[in-house]
Amino acid sequence: MHARQSPLSADRFFAPDPAQRRVARELYDGIADLPIVSPHGHVDPRLLADENATFGTPADLLIIPDHYVFRMLHSQGVPLEVIGVPRREGPADLAEPADPADPVGHRQIWQVFADHFHLFLGTPTGIWLAHELQDVFGIPEPLTGANAQAIYDELSDKLARPEFRPRALFERFNIEILCTTDDASDPLTWHQAIRASGWAGDVRPTFRPDALVNIGAPGWRSHLDALGRACGREITSCAALVTALEERRAFFKRMGATATDHGVESAYTAPLDAAEAEAIFARALRGEATADDARRFTGHLLIEEARLSVEDGLTMQLHVGAFRNHDRSVFERFGADKGADIPVATEFTRNLRPLLERFGDDARLTLILFTLDESSYARELAPLAGHYPAVRLGPPWWFNDSLNGMARYFDQVMETAGLWNTAGFNDDTRAFVSIPARHDVWRRASANWLAGLVVRGLVDEPGAVEMAHEMADGLARRAYRLGKA
Q: Is the pTM of this model over 0.90?
């Protein structure tokens, strides 16, 4: 018999020391109900484009789209097909025939999930799922294989109600601003629909040109053609590409965007002269670009993107250190973003210097750095942010977005960088109903860390109160230029 998820404790994540726990509780109570500002994430905007939109089934909500969930099941030998992850060519096959009353087999998917729910005990995903089931949906009983179908029925009933539709939960969660992440050529149809609907929710796009900046990425040429269609002309040179990106950034900004996002394996940056850039672009058009061409072209365009951010004021995010699609067989069958992106060691000091030589001292640029390589926190990132006016440190990302990951980040970064050279928190999630859980973990972890400073005499309680509000709200608003802070 497997262990079960415990009910949520009011003092969860706080230190056992009574003095620290008292201060942590007081600090947390002062920030727990602040509005959620979500400046970076991957929620599908179509969820909020129609007031009658729903999340679908419990499997649609919690399992099929969430790689945090299905990567754990995959690690224990559960085929992705069995839990409904769609293949490149269409919907996944199920291991057994579906129930006639459930033609797409979502009850079966849910049963497999429940049978393996113990795998998430002690993990960030387990913490988020417990919060979602207990706090969002009012289901206090831990999920097991035995009660799976009863809980499926209860969730299905609630998901059909108006108060559990995406817009209703957006308001219940007290989300003030939600930013999505969108391809550079995206027409932002769903964002336009949200605006046209008259709904008051503030949902903003974020400009992501990765598929165009990386000439070695699969489908680069098709993305270039899509950008050309969005701009109304064919793009045949590097100069034309930069101009097109500038135009699209302006469109995104008119639609409310305040930031760009760039995901790269390496922080390498270096300028190319015009002739070199055009020669590499020409080779890419012919399908002859080398891996070194791709590395150098990306490094050049990152500097160009920083220049554009200086000019148009969009905050620049740089996510570094993911070896994308490490599992080739999963990528070939299911495509990208299926939980098989693995951290690699990163180097910032030398790689980022060419960009920082040009723009690091320019306060018009805000460059938020993220990494999956925790070893670079104290060695490189904190000293960089503690010097360059343009640099801010993003919160612990992905595998490090956990209670222990946050504690390590606080301990390694804050003394050298200082709190005000960090960018607060972002949830970086596709799983909409996990947003309040993720912010709650950050707020509790922040309160606990600050309480430790108080009881050790490093910060007084009024100072800790100010810092707690900054960590929950103010830092993110300023870093992403999202208004009052």
A: yes
